[in-house]
Amino acid sequence: MAGALLKQSVGTFRVSYPGESQSVSTFIKAPQPLDAEYFRTRLLGWFDQYGRTHLPWQQDRSPYRVWVSEIMLQQTQVTTVISYFERFMQRFPDVETLAAAEQDEVLHLWTGLGYYARARNLHRAAQCVVSEHDGVFPVESVTALSALPGIGRSTAGAIIAQATGQRAPILDGNVKRVLTRLHGVEGWPGKPEVEKRLWQLAEHYTPQWRCADFTQAMMDMGATLCTRRRPSCLLCPFEADCVAHARGEEHRFPASKPKKEKPVRQTLMLMLRDGNGHVLLEQRPSSGLWGGLWGMPQFDDHEALRAWLAREMPGSIVGEQWPCFTHVFTHFRLEITPVQAHLSRRGGHPAVSGRRWYDPDQPDSIGLAAPVKALLESLSSSSLL
DNA sequence: AAAGCGTGGGC
DNA sequence: TGCCCAAGCTT
User: Domains of chain A (ranges plus CATH)?
Assistant: First the structure.
């Protein structure tokens, strides 16, 4: 209850009374945080009853398993991650196995999960842990962990808290939602000054003891109770303390990202097949969209496509054009027009590094972007050849 | 500092 | 359907 708060945060009591919220409106713009001990006690009490304890990465906890799960969970929902995590652990049970693998196979297990830089960084980090840290994760500090590719401040905190129980704050989307509502923090949390304030609050509340449970509890609150839409405020242990709830403005927090116009990009995707029905794939540059994955050669226009074919694959014949389909990304809309072509001769293709002939009926273990994978699957059952 | 990076889900 | 967002990090 509010009565457990410290004296210096006495002003926050008033926001529990909606009728008076107007008269204290200047005050509640920047309320004091709750007493940390009060907050932890209530949160952990809630967690003991309602927290999640049966997620795959919560069993058999090790820095390695926690690390892989945290990377997969970046900007990705729990229900999506679970099956990927299980497959990944089966194939790469420890950091040595992962470090020794080919990047292609790592990307293969990442296919469909998105943000493929995560997989490339994960692979590099595994090799770094093995070669530079003797196979032991540097969980002694946020700084040491953050030095590994793909691990930022929040992920480092999560790994330390979950794998060792040591005190380390986190600040992910769930925690941001809980904290912005609890304190009525205005502004988009992606803005540096807002994020700075949220880190201060996270630092304030994070305890020395039961830190694994505490950080998990914050995420569980955000994921199951303090949800983006229709939060279950009546079940929340901080109903009486929450600034947003007192104002009846839960939906306003966190403020949404300023939106920008989505550009439309168009591209041609060459589906070149040889006499065996195999499809030509190229490895994409290691940075940028679908970096490091395999895909069909891409062109801006037909002229570029024809010129490339004449130069690289003499004897090929351009066939029909498939209907354009659209893939919507976060920041742009990609209109893809598949163009079919085939080689008139049989066999005898020179092996070129970065290129391969892919049999849609017997897929290799390589990384494919979701739309490319879908196209290849449609080829395997079609009779277009 | 701000943009780039995927995909699937919810409404 | 279109839009917003999800256990963020890198450049």
Answer: 2-252 (1.10.340.30), 264-381 (3.90.79.10)
